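Task: fold both queries, return tokens.
Query 1:
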Amino acid sequence: MITDVISLIFILPGAFMVLSAAVGAVRFRSTMARIHAITKPQTTGLVLMVVGTLIRLIGAEDFSFHERGDIGILILLTIFALMTSPVTAQRLGRVARLEGLYGDEDELTVNQNPARNP
């Protein structure tokens, strides 16, 4: 019973973050805002939901040797998401910059103090 409550404490905010990532991908207009909306809260939400699921699995009364494989799969899923999400965001940002897909010119801001090369 207590593990169910603790797992819900992790799963519900994680599900909300994944939902907010989906809403952000639809609502935001520029490419950079969409990349940010897809990568940051989606990965954090996934980690929270996996932690909640691990707590639920380990705290179950019928937890046995066979469920240990499920824990390994969840851990591998989390590691894979944490490794690929930043790389995907960086690559999408670079392609958007090279192709000029940032968005409308009137929605972009100008950097008044760009970095200077020594």
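Query 1 returned. Query 2:
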Amino acid sequence: MASILYLLFLLFLFSFEAAESLQVGSRSILRAISGPDPPDAAVDLNITNFDSVLSDSPASFAIVEFFAHWCPACRNYKPHYEKVARLFNGREAVHPGIILMTRVDCALKINTKLCDKFSVGHYPMLLWGPPSKFASGSWEPKQKSEIIAIDDGRTADRLLNWINKKMGRHIVRAVYDVEEATSSAFDIILDHKMINSVTRAPLIGFLQLLVAHHPSRRCRKGSAEVLVNFDEFWPSDLWASNKQEAIVSRGKDAIQSLRICGKEAPRGYWIFCRGSKNETRGFSCGLWVLLHSVSVRIEDGESQFAFRSTCDFIHNFFICQECRQHFHEMCSSITSPFKKTADFALWLWTAHNQVNERLMKEEADLKTGDPKFPKMIWPPKQLCPSCYLSPPSRRKDGSMSIDWNRDEVFKFLVGYYGKMLVSSNKDSFLEEEKRGSSLADEVVTSTNVVAVPLGAALGIALASCAFGALACFWRSRQKNRKQRRPRS
């Protein structure tokens, strides 16, 4: 442990000259490491590296885009292709290791034979298949092969749909919307100036939950950075200061430039949660998916912390007053602490169904529901037959009576919101425990929190290890310098 800290210290010393001019509380550390703009995510290939890159790739599938740099349609398509590529390629990828997304410029003479091998007849042309089949392989349109042409990928949305259908799951769609919901939630908090002496602690608790268990890697990373710099954004003695308004404004500007899920997170791009009308689904759907995905990722010992953090977050930061009050009542009805992951996951599932049942009646009376996506009791029987012990029936008051197999419901929730929303959530936690515990302690103490569950602490350490150590060390040094500075 001492040797690792010493290496981090040496790394800090080498970067100190550059860091000295950067402001604490901004994206300074992250920018110093990553640079201001992300590079292209799709990997550029040519005849010299095509076989070696693809044969060495651990990805299950590869997409190769054949294009020409002079082609206007190819230039217009690039932002769409890059949007999808960032999901799978690079350090910020939400789903690293699943699909290797590459491109080949057929306008370069060096690639003429390579493009001929794959019968490139138009631009852009996309091929899909196992990486090993591309390496030292070829493709003919009428030839039976594991390499196939993507016939409907001309926009990011359509390419994602094609990938999801091919892989038989909706991972990408749901993670997009979870990122969107996370970003939107924090925009609302900042725009409505909802952080104060009362709400400060609940926000810290929810951030700890996101750092440890958000299904998106870049949201975990962004949440960790906000948590690391929280005292700089909103000091604990802020509300006793006569400069409160200026400090709040500075914190808002800093965190908005930070972007909690990174600047590449989709905005206004609901896919899984898109309604048939602009005013339906969207944010509320995305927020529910986020909460469910977190609920099945926590460890048994974290269930009460996750329950309390979720209840406090909704109570303090969900802007719909009636919805907030209903959720608070459901939270207040719990008298015994949760002990197992299933306890919290099943409570949240029950709460969601109660909300849906209430809204079904209201939307039917007021005709405000989404006709293509009506509220329903979840999961429907066709999606999880084993979840039902007997056919549903209606009570005299019109409400649904269902005899649930709760063990099967929990298995379904884990599969649907857990395995289908995989994003490197458990990045070698056990192997990294010793290496990350010190950093976790520093992040925790910097935000004045008394106790954090083990999983959350480890999540904080791991999600921020690339930049958090430098940030923590830098902040510690700055605080020491402030303490040594003579008071006027």
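Both queries returned. Flag for query 2: The chain has a mean pLDDT of 76.
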